[in-house]
Amino acid sequence: MRDVLRSSAGITYIGALVMVIIMGIMMGIAGQTWKMVMQRERETELLFRGLEYQRAIRRWHQVDLVEGKQVQAQGKVQARRPLNDLKDLLKDPTSAGATRYLRRLYLDPVTGEEFEVRRDPAKGIIGVASTSDKEPLKQDGFDQEIAAFQGRKQYREWVFGLAEAVAPAPGTVSGLPGSGATAPAPGSGVPK
User: Fold this and answer.
1) What is the predicted pLDDT for the residue at 80?
2) What is the pTM of this model?
């Protein structure tokens, strides 16, 4: 009788171990799937927020541009001050009315930190980018507005802003030496 009890206890023990192993494998698969879903969500939010910044920055700089040509008022070219702070997109300090280019300042959803600000010496802020080195899930199929993102290997290469910030010259990445843009200035991003 004892041998029968021992053998059934051993079978139960082995069965329990197999169940634990199967559950561990399934939890690992579920964890990977969840991680992928979360990255896709953050990436989608990055595209939304980045495009909001891009449209706002382009509208700021297009006040003096209409179809690529400078607007003239009474024979003089209207001068536009550079965009020096992202806060100016919330309410244009040079406007008599409440001109808003952006509803609110956003954080980078991939890192949870401020966006990196890309600058041009003459125009001020010309774009924003993530600071993440992660590889994007989306590699192609971008809208025309951000078609330059195709094939980029890191989120930090997704620069949202003026055309010269979005599509850097071949062999350079906007914001790096040789691109004409500079590193972000302290306090030019989202307040904490």
Assistant:
1) 66
2) 0.67
